[in-house]
Amino acid sequence: MAQNWKIRHRYCSHAMPSPGLWIRIIFSILMVSIGMTFLMGHASAVSRIKDIADFEGVRENQMIGYGLVVGLNGTGDSLTNSPFTRQSLQSMLERMGVNTVAEELRTANVAAVMVTANLPPFATPGTRIDVTVSALGDAGSLQGGTLLVTPMMGADGQTYAIAQGSLAIGGFSVQGDAASLTRGVPTSARISNGALVEREVGFELATLDRLRIALRNPDFTTARRVALAINDLMGQPIAEPKDPATVQLYLPKSFNGNIVDLITDIEQLLIEPDLPAKVVIDEDTGVIVMGREVQISTVAVAQGNLTVMVSEFADVSQPAPFSEGETTVIPNTEISSEEVETQLAVISSGVSLQELVDGLNMLGIGPRDMISILQAIKAAGALQAEIEVM
Fold it and tell me: How far is Cα 191 from Cα 182, in angstroms, rounded to an integer?
C-alpha cells in the first residue's frame, strides 16, 4: 500500500508544471482567446458572393395579365364606374357561344383584375408559380372569388403562363347601415401555385464562354476582392473587375464544361464587402441609420431646447341685472417661453460609430434633433460620410 502511494506521489510531483511553465501556458491561452475573438469578429463581417451578387442570366422575368374574378357576393364592379368589366364579360361569353349583345348584364358578382407574377429563372413548362390578383375597378372586396383563365404575358408580349384558381385574401370588409369595418386590403389577393408555366425563357447557360457577376451594391473595392477570391480559387487570373458593379469571368480552357459546378464553388466564397460611409435619414419618421465606416473629426456640439407656450382663455364681462349693458367676451392670451441650457459636448476625432452615438445620446436629444445635429456637423466639415435624406 505504501509502495502504491509513493508511486502516485512521485507521478503527481512530476506532473505539476513549474511557475515559468504556468506563465507560458496562461500566455498561450490568452493569445488563443484573442485570436479566436479576432477571427469571430472578422467572420461576422464577411458574406458569401451568393448573397452580394447576381450571375448573368440567372434572373426572374415579370409577367402581367388582365382577367375576370367571378363568384363575388355583390362586392364586384359597378356598371357606371367600371364599364370595361361589362365589356370583358360580354366578350368572354360570346367566345363561349352565349349572345349577350342586347342584354343588360349586371356585374355585382364580377370584378376586373390585373394579375402579376414573377417567372423564376430556368422555369420549365409545367412549373407552378404564385400569382397576385389586384382589383382594377371599384370592387369592394375579392373575398370568395375565383379567377378565370388568364394569360400571363412578358415584356415581349408573348404568353408564358396561364393563371386560374380560387383567391385567398389577407383582409376583410363588412358593413351595416350605420357602420363599416375594413381590415387589411380586401381588394388584393393571392393564388398559391395559381399559374402554370407554358413557355420557358430561352437561355443556354452551359454554352457561355464568359460570365459576368453583377454586384448588388456597386463598389470598386468589393469588385476587386471578388475577382481576387475567384482567382485564388482557380489558381489562375480568370476574373477581372470591369467596373464597380461588374466582374468579368472568363472560363478557363481546362474547364470541364460543367458551369453549374463552377458557379457553386464561386458563390460560396467569403468576401468582406466594402461600402462607403453613409448616413441615411428619414425625416418623416425620424429614423437614422449610420454605417460602420462613419468617422468624425473633433467637434463640439451643444443643443438647446426652446419651448414656447401659448395659452388662450376668455374673460366674460357680465353687466348688472336690469341694466342696459351687453354681455361681452374679452379674449386673453398668455405667452411664455422656456429654454433648457445645455453645455458643449466634445466629440473626439476618429471615434467609432458606437462612441458617436453615445456622445450624441449624452446630449439627451431625440431623433429629429439628432438629424439637425448630424447635418450641422456635416456642414462644418467634421463628418466624413455622405448624408442621404430619404
Answer: 21
